[in-house]
Amino acid sequence: MDEVLVSEDVRGRVILYDAFISHRGSELKKHAEKIHGDLSGLGVSSFFDSREIRTGENLSGVIVEAIRVSSIWLVLLSKGFAESPWCLDEVRLMVD
To answer: Going from the N-terminus, what domains does the chain have, and what CATH number goes with each?
Structure first.
């Protein structure tokens, strides 16, 4: 894999992800979790919200930073994806 610059995130931890997994939780959480596990088994680090965000953390800040320090973004589209302002904001951050 190509090397990516390591960044310090909003929580003071150094993070680096090969992939950021974007999904509408209520529809594809189990699929996203499986992809996260499969990638991990292949040695690919991926950001998966329910595994990476701790209680009390600034959700928006963590997501923005994770998108910024990820090499690629995996967007799992579902019927309701475009109805979620949060999901659409993630995609905007990816393409900006």
So the answer is: 7-95 (3.40.50.10140)
pLDDT digits (tens, 9 = 90+) for 41-94: 999 999 887 667 666 666 678 888 889 888 889 999 999 999 999 999 999 999
pTM above 0.70, yes or no: yes
Torsion of the alpha carbons at 16, 13, 74 and 40, rounded to the nearest 10? 70
3-state secondary structure of 70: strand
The pLDDT of residue 80 is: 92
- Give the Cα separation of 32 and 95 in Å (integer): 21
- Output DSSP code: residue 56: T
Active site residues: 90
Strands (E), the chain: 7-8, 14-15, 17-22, 46-47, 70-75
Cβ atoms of 4 and 68 within 8 Å: the answer is: no
Asked if residues 75 and 27 have their Cβ atoms less than 8 Å apart, the reply is no
